[in-house]
UniProtKB/TrEMBL annotation:
Positions of the Fe2OG dioxygenase domain: 178-278
InterPro entries: Oxoglu/Fe-dep_dioxygenase_dom (IPR005123), P4HA-like (IPR045054), Pro_4_hyd_alph (IPR006620), Pro_4_hyd_alph_FE2OG_OXY (IPR044862)
Protein name, per record: Proline hydroxylase
Lineage: Bacteria, Pseudomonadati, Pseudomonadota, Alphaproteobacteria, Sphingomonadales
Cofactor(s) required, per the database record: L-ascorbate
This protein's UniProt keywords: Dioxygenase, Iron, Metal-binding, Oxidoreductase, Vitamin C
Iron in keyword set: yes
Pfam families: 2OG-FeII_Oxy_3
Organism: Sphingomonas ginsenosidimutans
Gene3D superfamilies (UniProt xref): q2cbj1_9rhob like domain
Length: 288
């Protein structure tokens, strides 16, 4: 299992997803539960193979679920979804237009309560204070805009539930699932916020053209999503999703898409974000 992890993260051994898949299969065959779950994730998203294999991943998950409660819980969530043989929603979610400029669409009940809890639970062990790389020093520093804890659910942890949710996001946004960055979960405690910002990246060849926000919980005050230019504030409702466009028709950043996560006044806010690029990207390139 350790050799497989090294091959996935690329240290101390070079990254080799095909070799990692083979090592995980060997570990799973002798009863290593974590290896089995990781093997399921990589099979579903196609890492180390020619293409994603939802059917194969589902077969592996059913085997794992027979002896592991974590796998069984994942299988129950997948079985409750209305999806096709590739893990995609049978019908694309339909949203409510809140604003034309920027284009903001709200999807009511996008996630079930169990799906919200699952996403938060997958990310919880990986949460850390938000950081960015300082372009001057090349060192990791505290994020100057986002005062929260965050964690990206990269391809090694993208279980079948998360994979199906990412496919749902792709269907709602009319984009390729491969164009989405890893789903990122943020946890805001009292006083924490995401100050006004654009989600676009300066000089990016493959720009973030859209953003999907998923509201995961209730029980807190504050934390509205606010767009200053159109004067739009969205009160988070658990299970709802918010999709907005970040770029203009000529692909330049849209200044009207500037937005903020207002300070949390009491309780803890959980939110998931998926930034969607103009074209497919390699999620492993964002995994260090």
């Amino acid at each position: 299992m350790q050799l497989a992890v090294w091959r996935l993260v690329g240290t101390p051994l070079p990254r080799d997803l095909t070799v990692a898949r083979a090592l995980l299969a060997r570990a799973a065959a002798i009863g290593h539960v974590d290896a089995a779950l990781m093997q399921v994730a990589l099979t579903a998203n196609g890492s180390g193979a020619a293409a994603p294999d939802w059917r194969g991943a589902l077969a592996l998950l059913r085997v794992a679920a027979a002896g592991d409660p974590v796998a069984a819980a994942q299988l129950a969530l997948v079985d409750a979804m209305t999806i096709d043989a590739a893990g995609r929603p049978v019908r694309a979610p339909v949203g409510e237009l809140l604003c034309d400029a920027p284009r903001v669409v709200r999807f009511r009940g996008f996630l079930s309560a169990a799906e919200c809890a699952h996403v938060a639970g997958v990310a919880a062990p990986m949460l850390a204070p938000a950081r960015v790389i300082d372009p001057a020093s090349g060192r990791w520093v505290t994020h100057p805009v986002r005062t929260a804890d965050d964690a990206a659910i990269g391809p090694a942890n993208e279980d079948m539930v998360v994979r199906a949710i990412n496919a749902r996001i792709a269907a709602a946004s009319g984009t390729d699932i491969a164009a989405g960055e890893p789903l990122t979960v943020l946890r805001y405690r009292p006083g924490q916020q995401y100050r006004p910002h654009l989600d676009t990246m300066a000089g990016a060849a493959n720009q973030r053209v859209m953003t999907m926000l998923l509201y995961l919980n209730a029980g807190y005050r504050g934390g509205d999503t606010h767009f200053p230019a159109p004067g739009l504030s969205v009160v988070p409702v658990p299970g709802d999703a918010l999709l907005f466009r970040n770029t203009l028709p000529d692909d330049r950043p849209d200044p009207l898409s500037r937005h903020a996560g207002q300070p949390v006044l009491a309780g803890t806010k959980w939110l998931a974000t998926r930034w969607i690029r103009a074209a497919p990207l390699d999620p492993w390139a964002l995994s260090g």
